[in-house]
Amino acid sequence: MLSSLKDVVKKIARSSSVDKKLVEEIVRDVQRALIKADVNVRQVKEISDAIKKRALSEEVLSGLNPREHIIKIVYEEILRGVGEGFDIPLKKSKIMLVGLQGSGKTTTAAKIAKYFKDKGMKAAVIAGDTHRPAAYEQLKQLAEQAGLGFFGKKEEKDAVKIVKEGLEALKDYDVIVIDTAGRHALEEELIEEMKRIAEVSKPDYKFLVLDASIGQLASKQAEAFNEAVGIDAIVITKFDGTAKGGGALSAARLIGIPIAFIGTGEKIEDFEKFDPAGFVSRLLGMGDIKALLEKVERIVKEEELDPEAFLKGKFTLKDVYKQLEAMNKMGPISKIFEMLPFGFSLKVDDEALEMTQEKMKKFKVIMDSMTEEELLNPKIIDSSRIRRIAIGSGTTPQDVKELLNYYNTMKNLMKRLKKGKLPIKGLKLGL
Ligand code: GDP
């Protein structure tokens, strides 16, 4: 999965021109790479269809070249297909692990505790797996090696009792990770034990530990465990040893359970918090993508979020549209003005400038019903056009007039700003 997706990006970056043929080739390459990584066929189709559609229809963001544009689309669509990450706040918590035998639970218990220890928290593990005889020694050793607190009872068979005592003995610790027994299948006995341990420990989080090599089967297992005891997030282990990692990742997306961590080797430090954006960036070749995304961010900031951009050039309804988009991200227009470099603040008393989410939506729908000519030159919008636009957008002529009134108010304001007549606090717009 790793090398083939990187190759796709390389192919795009090296191409002399971006045309339909290249897009089709890229889409096929992405498909092949995802199928090889065991991603569900339906998801592969969704991802590749979306890449194709966007690559052939979306306008290239100005400032990006067509190659960068395609890479951005590939990145975004693959990211969409990967399960979400799971943020655990750094505070006192109990984490209970569940999963089948051999999935990597015991190793993961130590890895998670170490993760928190590395963040400066007091972390410990409880050896609650009384089913697999070697689990106790294994966890004890790992805990010693990593400097973690440990509680276990070698001869005790009652896991519930161990967990209860462990929580008492380790109550000074910030984070306690509870290892539990697995079986070869999710059977009644295992479900009973998991439930009882959850009852006495009242964990803040229950993580399911899944072996990446099971690929797409991950979704079935996760669903079954979720139904039996309720799962907050998944830890995918043995990511290093399989070509099927994509299957487990996309399975998580499919069932909507986030991924907290991934295990990338047998050693305790072979472990990372799952960060979808970083992960996909790496799949595609980190350097290129990171630089590209930074560039995109800059452009978006400059184009949409820079209030000064509103002052440049002729002010049309297209700019109003952009402003509304920006407001979605930045808040009301008065806030945008506060960000202007010459640092004045504008208190907008004018009703015309008051903007609610509903109004914003309505204005956008109205603008979607306008012709290009009307958007660029709103002056031509007379009463018969107003009627047509209202019908086309399912609104009333009054609504269309309200939008035009908003536009005129903004335009006037822009004019004043451009002339250097900066509005002062408390300005009333004399319209
Ligand atoms: P448990 O039965 O669920 O407690 O599983 P263990 O923690 O004993 O792990 C089973 C095997 O998988 C052990 O040999 C571990 O060293 C190995 N293992 C666990 N996590 C990883 C991982 O992320 N990568 C690799 N390569 N091996 C792992």
Keywords:
single chain, 431 residues, alpha/beta, Four Helix Bundle (Hemerythrin (Met), subunit A), Rossmann fold, 434 Repressor (Amino-terminal Domain), 3 domains, eight-stranded mixed β-sheet, disordered C terminus, binds guanosine-5'-diphosphate, cytoplasm, hydrolase, Signal recognition particle 54 kDa protein, 7S RNA binding
Write structural notes for this entry.
- The chain is α/β, with parallel strands linked by helices and 431 residues long.
- The chain folds into 3 domains: 98 residues, Four Helix Bundle (Hemerythrin (Met), subunit A) (Up-down Bundle); 182 residues, 3-Layer(aba) Sandwich (Rossmann fold), CATH 3.40.50.300; 113 residues, 434 Repressor (Amino-terminal Domain) (Orthogonal Bundle), CATH 1.10.260.
- 56% of the residues lie in helices and 10% in strands.
- Strand 5, helix 9 and strand 6 form a beta-alpha-beta unit.
- Helix 2 packs antiparallel against helix 3 and helix 7 packs parallel to helix 8.
- The termini are far apart.
- The C terminus is likely disordered.
- The structure holds guanosine-5'-diphosphate (GDP).
- The site of guanosine-5'-diphosphate has 20 residues, from helix 5.
- The site of guanosine-5'-diphosphate (GDP) has 20 residues, from helix 5.
- Its main location: cytoplasm.
- This is Signal recognition particle 54 kDa protein.
- It comes from Ferroglobus placidus (strain DSM 10642 / AEDII12DO).
